[in-house]
Amino acid sequence: MAKVGAESVEELPKAIVRRLVKEKLSESDAGDLQIHKEAILAFGESARIFIHYLSATAKDVCKESKRQTINAEDIFEALEEIEFQEFIEPLKASLDDFKRKNAGKKAGAAKAKEADKKRKMAQSEGGKEPSTAKAKEMEADKKRKMVQPEVEEEPSAHSEDQEDDEEADEEGNEKEDEEEADEDEQEEEADEDGDNKEEGDINDKEDEEEADEEDNSESA
């Protein structure tokens, strides 16, 4: 930190000040001219004071225009007021170059972002839907199945055995039913024969009783 009067201010970065001074000196015939560290400090302090002076003038210009934001035009007008008109054209050229570079960076970033977005969308669609060739193959297979008649399935050996068992069970059940029916008929016939025999015995007994009565009548 360096002090000017009673105010405490920040120094400009010495590395930046040194680089700017060396770049300017390299454009001239200074050769291997060396720069003392106190000279670097003086350059930095001079630049700081100039920036403060220019900022105060630009602020007044902005207020006169009834605005709250200082723009580049305010800086140009402030340079003219403090009689540094020769800085205006180089400053405008530097600003135009900066805008072109910045616009190129923004355009490149926008293109890269758009390309990345398209790539992600393509990957997402590829993960959810089948490819075109796969979709065509699936559609052709579907149509082929619709055209071809359905082929009846041949009965398996297990199915045939099961059918034979069922038929045998049915035949066995029918045979049992027939046997039961025959037994029922035989029982009914036996019952009828018994009834007929009993009825015949009763008739014979009645005939005998009638004969006895007739004999008794004749004897009397």
From TrEMBL:
One BP term from GO: heterochromatin formation
Record's keyword terms, sorted: Nucleus
SUPFAM superfamilies to which the protein is assigned, alphabetical: Histone-fold (SSF47113)
Gene3D superfamilies the record matches: Histone, subunit A
Protein's UniProt keywords contain Nucleus: yes
Principal location: nucleus
Subcellular location: Nucleus
Gene Ontology molecular function: chromatin DNA binding; protein heterodimerization activity
Biased composition (Acidic residues): 161-196, 204-220
Region (Disordered) residue spans: 101-220
GO terms for cellular component: CHRAC; epsilon DNA polymerase complex
Record-linked InterPro entries: CBFA_NFYB_domain, DNA_Pol-Epsilon_Subunit, Histone-fold
Domain spans labelled Transcription factor CBF/NF-Y/archaeal histone: 11-79
Name of the featured protein: Transcription factor CBF/NF-Y/archaeal histone domain-containing protein
Organism field: Papaver somniferum (Opium poppy)
Organism lineage string: Eukaryota, Viridiplantae, Streptophyta, Embryophyta, Tracheophyta
